[in-house]
Write a structure and sequence with these properties.
Layout (H helix, E strand, L loop, with lengths): L17 E3 L4 E3 L4 H28 L3 H22 L4 E2 L4 H13 L19 E6 L2 E8 L4 E2 L5 E3 L4 E3 L4 E3 L4 E3 L4 H30 L4 H7 L1 H30 L3 H6 L19 H10 L26 H4 L13 H10 L2 E6 L25 H10 L1
Antiparallel strand pairs: 1-2, 3-8, 4-5, 4-11, 5-6, 7-8, 9-10
Helix pairs in contact: 1-2, 1-4, 1-6, 2-4, 4-5, 4-6, 5-6, 6-8
This protein binds zinc ion (2 copies).
């Protein structure tokens, strides 16, 4: 029997990412600027190793090229790891899961403020709220991915994916920066700062030693490459140092660039809005953000694709697919999303914002007598999350 070629999931991936080496590597859809970053770093360092290192190794110390090579390799490995790995893409809802969510939302529409949800011409509820360490955090529905995004996730319009703990889309590294590659991005920015300062210092030292007695003009004529390297480093080092400082601040406060730009945790109208994700001190935040356990990739891009949707869903989700067996609370957020929320965040409970009289701070309140038992029971979502 002729062997049939299997289709891997990256080949039918719904987002716009590009995959390389049979799905082992991935980048944003247009990695052109990333290639420019690579070319800029490699060409500047090539000039450094070709012209400054031999001179300084002979005149100053043989440790100069060794230190330069170590910094260069460290920076490049951090850059490649950032650029070619999964930033934390959240898989889109499978068709059956999305349909169940829509159906569940519609079924619960008969009660209270959810009225009309699922009725003809009106979309089901698209607003939910969860409690993170006692603080309400809104969950937004992604119409492209057909799911409620976990807190801190955002949809990258360039890659067309929701990314967990979305920081920003960085064209320079040719990828989104998110939960799974932020530590490598930070390492890249910091090590690039050291590399730029080191290469700049070497070029200036080379010119200064050449200029001794002969003058700066003679030094420039003797080593024009050093002047070029010094100019490139001088022009670029300020933005790189600024970026390293900014991301050090973000890591020490456990914020993302996205949250900082939107002012998610800034004081508004005199009401403080502290960051619920912060662990209280800068060291603990840095440790968690940069050294905490690395979340596994959720997109299984090398897995074998099958059209059997049941394979795509966790067993617990079967309860949602079978309406008669739906337990209260399983409908609002699918079981897989609830599990994802629970695994990736510090959620205490989930609330439905479309509820008529939402009790915003009662995560463990018993079910209200009027709470519907339909799949979209708003109180039940709380119980479901609390039970996880
Ligand atoms: Zn999305
Ligand atoms: Zn992106």
């Amino acid at each position: 029997m002729a062997s049939r070629r299997v289709t891997r999931k990256w080949e039918v991936f719904a987002g716009r990412n590009r995959f390389w080496c049979d799905g082992r590597l991935m980048t944003a859809p247009h990695p052109g600027v990333f290639v420019l970053t690579l070319a800029l770093i490699c060409s500047t360092c090539a000039l450094h190793f070709a012209f400054d290192c031999p001179f300084l190794a002979a005149r100053v110390s043989p440790a100069v090229p060794v230190a330069g090579a170590a910094l260069f390799l460290f920076t490049m490995s951090a850059l490649l790891r950032t650029a070619l790995s999964d930033p934390g893409i959240i898989p889109r809802a499978a068709a059956a899961e999305a349909a169940a969510l829509e159906a569940g939302a519609g079924a619960g529409g008969g009660g209270g403020g959810g009225a009309g949800a699922g009725e003809a011409g009106r979309p089901p509820p698209r607003a939910r709220e969860v409690l993170v360490r006692g603080r309400p955090v809104k969950l937004k529905y992604c119409f492209t991915c057909k799911m409620f995004r976990p807190p801190r996730a955002s949809h990258c319009s360039l890659c067309d994916n929701c990314v967990d703990r979305f920081d920003h889309h960085c064209p320079w590294v040719g990828n989104c920066v998110g939960k799974r590659n932020y530590r490598y991005f930070y390492t890249f920015v910091v090590s690039l700062s050291f590399l730029a300062v080191f290469v700049f210092a070497c070029a200036v030292a080379h010119l200064a030693l050449e200029a001794r007695g002969a003058g700066l003009g003679a030094a420039l004529r003797a080593s024009p490459a050093s002047a070029l390297v010094a100019a490139v480093c001088f022009l670029s080092v300020w933005s790189v140092l600024g970026l390293a400082g900014f991301h050090t601040y973000l890591a020490s406060t456990d914020q993302t660039t996205n949250e900082d730009i939107k002012g998610s945790f800034s004081t508004r109208r005199g009401v403080s809005n502290p960051n619920p994700y912060s662990r209280g001190n800068a060291c603990a935040n840095c440790w968690h953000v940069l050294c905490g356990p690395l979340a596994p990739s959720l997109i299984d891009r090398r897995g074998v694709f099958t059209i059997d949707v049941k394979d795509e869903l966790p067993a617990s989700f079967a309860r949602v697919l079978a309406p008669a067996a739906v337990r209260p609370g399983a409908g609002g957020l699918s079981a897989s999303r609830l599990r994802l929320l629970h695994d990736t965040t510090m959620i205490d409970a989930a609330l439905d914002l479309d509820e008529p009289d939402p009790p915003p701070h009662l995560p463990h309140a018993p079910h209200a007598p009027h709470a519907p038992t339909a799949p979209h029971a708003p109180h039940a979502a709380r119980a479901a999350v609390a039970a996880l």
